[in-house]
Amino acid sequence: MLRFLLHRFGILIPTFIGVSIVTFAFIRVLPGDPILLLAGERGVTPERYAQLQELLGFDRPLVVQYWDYLWAILHGDFGTSLVSKQPVLDEFLARFPATLELSLCAMFLAVIIGIPAGVIAAVKRGSIYDQSIMTTALVGYSMPIFWWGLLLIILFSVTLGWTPVSGRISLMYYFPQVTGFMLIDSLLSGEKGAFASAVSHLILPSIVLGTIPLAVIARQTRSAMLEVLGEDYVRTARAKGLSSGRIVGLHALRNALIPVVTVIGLQVGVMMAGAILTETIFSWPGVGKWMLDSVFKRDYPVVQGGLLLIAAVVMVVNLMVDLLYGFINPRIRQG
Amino acid sequence: MTDQTVTETAADTTRSSRSARRAMLKEFWYYFSENKGAVAGLFVFLTLVIVALLAPLLAPYSPDQQFRDSLLVPPVWDADGKAAFLLGTDAVGRDVLSRLIYGARYSLVIGLVVVTLALVSGILLGLVAGFFRGWVDTVIMRLMDVILAFPSLLLALVLVAILGPGLRNAMIAIALVLQPHFVRLTRASVLSEKNKDYVVSARVAGAGKVRLMTRTILPNCLAPLIVQATLSFSTAILDVAALGFLGMGAQPPTPEWGTMLADSREFITRAPWLVTLPGVAILVTVLAINLVGDGLRDTLDPKLKRS
Fold this sequence. Notes:
The complex is a heterodimer of chains A (335) and B (307).
Chain A: H1 2-29, H2 34-39, H3 46-56, H4 62-74, H5 88-123, H6 128-141, H7 145-159, H8 182-189, H9 194-229, H10 232-239, H11 244-281, H12 287-297, H13 300-328, H14 330-334
Helix pairs in contact in A: 1-13, 5-6, 5-9, 5-11, 6-9, 7-9, 7-11, 8-9, 9-11, 10-11, 11-12, 11-13, 12-13
Chain B: H1 3-34, H2 36-53, H3 55-58, H4 96-132, H5 134-149, H6 152-163, H7 167-194, H8 197-204, H9 209-217, H10 222-245, H11 257-264, H12 272-300, H13 302-305
Helix pairs in contact in B: 2-4, 2-12, 4-5, 4-7, 4-10, 4-12, 5-7, 6-7, 7-10, 8-9, 10-11, 10-12, 11-12
């Protein structure tokens, strides 16, 4: 297990260095003078220009500049926003819980619907259930989610008036953020109706963000189940006279879930990409919308720092999934 | 052996390889056509190709022509619809059907260009990495890990921010984020093929490195690449449409479906058809291609073939 761990970290470190080189290079390959870009719209006097150049270290060799950049990152300094003048890390941390809450709810929906759907499709292979589940999954997998979000808004918000269109909670509630998770904070606040408001704001974005992972998980579960159901030990279990519920639930599903866990882990990156679209449609104040807004505002330090932070989150989650995978599948650990 | 017999044998070989290829195609179609969904997908896709090719003949109007007296006309099945505009008009009086038909051109070209860029560069890098191993391999694969560490759409968004918004830059950005999958697939296939007897015998017979890579090994790695290329085709269409939707892809008044959706967001309550129709076009196209991709995977994967 230790060797497995070391191997994983061994891959992670060069990847992180590569990612930091990419984000370091980002501000330098932008067309135009980086100092003028950083100084913003109003421009600078020549004295201030020289001062900034020295301050930002642009007059020194690239290697030295990169080293300083890496050093600052490792000390938690991801730069300062041009627009808000706040540290990028603080802005990120203020918005990340919103994205995390949305992603967790979306993943929860995807898993609790996707896995049973995949199991049913595999067990009833070729039946009308299998066909309709797999057709739905393929439609979900092909869905332009930005359009799907708009459709749901037309149906549930505009026509039926069931759900709000944007934000995390109704403006009439105000309470301190304790955990950053609106569902938990609204409960802690004790205000009547706050929790229901948070749920009603969360439901549509979660459906939208969860759609593609749901389809992928259902498809993967089905094919993993089909493979496992053809194995000798399942036949043995059948020959022993075990009920098919027991075979599916106890013997087959546990082994079929191994590849499904990997796929769930891979969906984290997909979800961070989907979060940009989902958060934009629903005005959800998370990191995806923050990144897009910063791109439009040309707030380059935020784009640079945010890109690195989001990549770091995805890498850490993937590492955790790898470790989990090694934990549930002993063959990997020793291999 | 006389020269004549040599020529005859060569002719025989060409003839037999041609008939072998025909037999392979026949077998391929036999298994592919068993998958009804895949055939339906192929049919829809070919229809779209024809629509895109014949757009100037099929579209009732030019995609940019404005009818100032017919703004936001609903589709013909609505009570207020006009027969002249089957799918209605948008906020500046352009015919939605004509724009959707021309939009098919954009989507198919986007898919084609992005996949070609990603496929060619991916195969080249994957061949080099798998064939030469050593530090070249390490550098290429770590570079691919770096690209894959970023969420694809986010990286594409930032790339477009650097290169400047527009359809061409959006396609380059999406090709770049799709390319690592081709590199990994090619490399893995090369590694599994490289030490097989037929490659060794070609090497012993004196085949050079380039010939070994491109003529001997590559044709035997194609099956997974074809499947990946098909599935990437639909991803490319989706992602470029998403960039268009975010305002970073094709710019108005281009009748690209994602950009059309972005334009129509403010009319979501007044003119819902402007939102639904381009989305349906994207969904149908992507779904058709994914159906073909699934069919190809089942046909080309020998493990699944005879089960």
